[in-house]
Amino acid sequence: MSEPIRVLVTGAAGQIAYSLLFSIAKGDVFGKDQPVILLLLDITPMLPVLDGVVMELQDCALPLLRDVVPTDKEEVAFKDLDAAILVGSMPRKEGMERKDLLKANVAIFKSQGAALEKYAKKTVKVLVVGNPANTNCLIAAKSAPSIPKENFSCLTRLDHNRARSQVALRCGVPATHVKNVIIWGNHSSTQYPDVHHCLVNMSGSELACFEAVKDDAWLKGDFIATVQQRGAAVIKARKLSSAMSAAKAICDHMRDIWSGTPEGEFISMGVYSSANSYGVPEDLIYSFPVQIKDKNWKIVEGLVINDFSKMKMDATAAELIEERDTAVAFLG
């Protein structure tokens, strides 16, 4: 058995964490022979709930779980981390403007970025889930200047999985038969789910998505809208935001960082936009197609982008620039 790795989950008493922690502790994310120490951070009023979560993790009697540390203190939570999954953020409340939401979250992610800088390993891999995820991730990265920018990413894997699943349902195949969908841009309703490079395995042969689906109007219309608005649809139906599917996407994202992506496949994640070949402006956390090897991601280059896609990619970049500029003003 290797040495245990130290994994932080913030917002650890919340509903996403409740679906997530078991999978991490069981070995689904970092490997079946990788022991873990879980550090669980939440705000002080949530500590009694967190104690209940700790009891349940203990009661699972999991062989890889070496220790669970519940805390409301950043200096405890962020110490010597190998991985940080930042789920906790200020949710949007009724009547709240987007800029109010940004202001509240800038304070949280500035503080957590500073804690990463001060206490975590410089090799820590940081995944930001709490919304607005792209901009929160950017703020955390800017607040931890000695940790490489490449170590920060935000979650668009849930959108990626949603897109993959919608195509699979349409074609009557399992989701595993659909690969190389792309989520471009922001984890918001401006994101662009792109299937121009997607392949669908139909009866043993791989077809281009447009050929497999045979409905261009749907792929350029309702499909995009469904993926963009899926989170809102879940809230409307369940009266709560996505938790099970968000937890699964977090697991997929972190497992791929740790173990790499399969040959010939790419996945979507929000990463630093610097030096990309798609004309996306610098200094954003923007979702790209990436491949991962040896815990390092690389943007997939050379994909042909048509005018329809370019327009959608530019629109979501414009929203991210506006968010970034608002957030950076609050930082100052």
From TrEMBL:
Q: Where on this chain does NAD(+) bind?
A: D42, N105, V129, G130, N131
- What's the top EC group for this one? oxidoreductase
Q: Which GO MF terms does the UniProt record name?
A: L-malate dehydrogenase (NAD+) activity
* Annotated Lactate/malate dehydrogenase N-terminal domain residues: 6-152
Residues that bind substrate: R92, R98, N131, R162
Q: Which Pfam families match?
A: Ldh_1_C (PF02866), Ldh_1_N (PF00056)
Q: Which GO terms describe its biological process?
A: malate metabolic process; tricarboxylic acid cycle
InterPro entries under this entry?
A: L-lactate/malate_DH, Lactate/malate_DH_C, Lactate/malate_DH_N, Lactate_DH/Glyco_Ohase_4_C, Malate_DH_AS, Malate_DH_NAD-dep_euk, Malate_DH_type2, NAD(P)-bd_dom_sf
Enzyme Commission identifier(s): 1.1.1.37
Catalytic site: H187
The record places domain Lactate/malate dehydrogenase C-terminal at 156-330
Q: Which reaction does it catalyse?
A: (S)-2-hydroxyglutarate + NAD(+) = 2-oxoglutarate + NADH + H(+); (S)-malate + NAD(+) = oxaloacetate + NADH + H(+)
Which CDD domains does the UniProt record give?
MDH_cytoplasmic_cytosolic
Q: Which SUPFAM superfamilies match?
A: LDH C-terminal domain-like (SSF56327), NAD(P)-binding Rossmann-fold domains (SSF51735)
**So where does this one cross the membrane?**
none
What UniProt keywords apply to this chain's record, in alphabetical order?
NAD, Oxidoreductase, Tricarboxylic acid cycle
Question: What is stated as this protein's family in its record?
Answer: Belongs to the LDH/MDH superfamily. MDH type 2 family.
Concerning PANTHER family, the annotation shows: MALATE DEHYDROGENASE
The entry's function note states:
Catalyzes the reduction of aromatic alpha-keto acids in the presence of NADH. Plays essential roles in the malate-aspartate shuttle and the tricarboxylic acid cycle, important in mitochondrial NADH supply for oxidative phosphorylation. Catalyzes the reduction of 2-oxoglutarate to 2-hydroxyglutarate, leading to elevated reactive oxygen species (ROS).
What is the protein's given name?
Answer: Malate dehydrogenase
Q: Which organism is it from?
A: Etheostoma spectabile
The taxonomic lineage of its organism, from the top, reads:
Eukaryota, Metazoa, Chordata, Craniata, Vertebrata
